[in-house]
Each structure stands twice: as C-alpha cells, then as structure tokens.
Amino acid sequence: MSYATVAERARELKEPLDTFFYIINIECLRSPEIIEAIRKSKNKIDMVVVDEIHVCTNPSSQQSKGLLKLNNFKYKIGLTGTLLTNSPLSAYVGLK
C-alpha cells in the first residue's frame, strides 16, 4: 500500500492493523507526525528495525531525533550496508 501524504500514513499507523509487521522508510523518522503516530499506536509493537541506520549518527539530525523518540520498544535493530568510516561507535547515535 502506498500513501499520498504523511498525514494518511500517520492516521493509519494510529489505528489497529491486521499485519504482522509494517515498513516505514528512514525518511519518515524526520516527521514528528509519524513518530507520534508510532508511539501512540493501538498496535502492540515489540521491535523496530531501521535500515540505513548510518544516516542517524548525528544526534542533532532530524532522523536521529526521531529515532531516539522511539524508545518504547523491547527490541531495536539497526541495519546498514555502508561501511563505518570512523569507528564502531559510529553505529550508536546516542554516544557522540
């Protein structure tokens, strides 16, 4: 399913979903509306998996701020195919 607007996606995320999982792209982490919809969702979400996590290395970026607000999950997994150029700590947004 695709959405024309962020508001449409946020509205659906707040309502009960019959799916086992749903996928949101990394750019959605920039949207306070999407972050709030995920946090206030009526769905029981145990895990969030974020692909392209290397774009969230700067704690002051919009995406990193959004990611850090998703703190109510039992499991958080970050994925990337991009080499870490500085150090392994580059994979941890909160440690800089």
Describe this structure in words.
With 96 residues, the chain is an alpha+beta fold. It has one domain (6-95). It is 26% helix and 8% strand. It is built from three helices and two strands. It has helices at 6-14, 32-39, 62-69; strands at residues 47-50, 75-78. The chain has a two-stranded parallel ribbon. Strand 1 (47-50), helix 3 and strand 2 (75-78) form a beta-alpha-beta unit. Helix 1 packs parallel to helix 2. The protein starts with 5 loop residues before the first helix and ends in an 18-residue tail after the last strand. The relative contact order is 0.17. The mean pLDDT is 79.
Beta-strand residue fraction: 5-15%
Order of helices and strands: HHEHE
Count of distinct strands: 2
- Which structural class do the helices and strands define? alpha+beta
* Overall geometry: globular
Side by side, the strands of the main sheet go 1-2
Number of domains: 1
Please, what is the average pLDDT?
A: 79
Helix content: 25-40%
Question: Low-confidence spans: pLDDT under 50, at least 5 residues?
Answer: none
Amino- and carboxy-terminal Cα gap = 37 Å
Q: How big is the Rg?
A: 14 Å
Report the major sheet.
2 strands, parallel
Structure annotation, total helices: 3
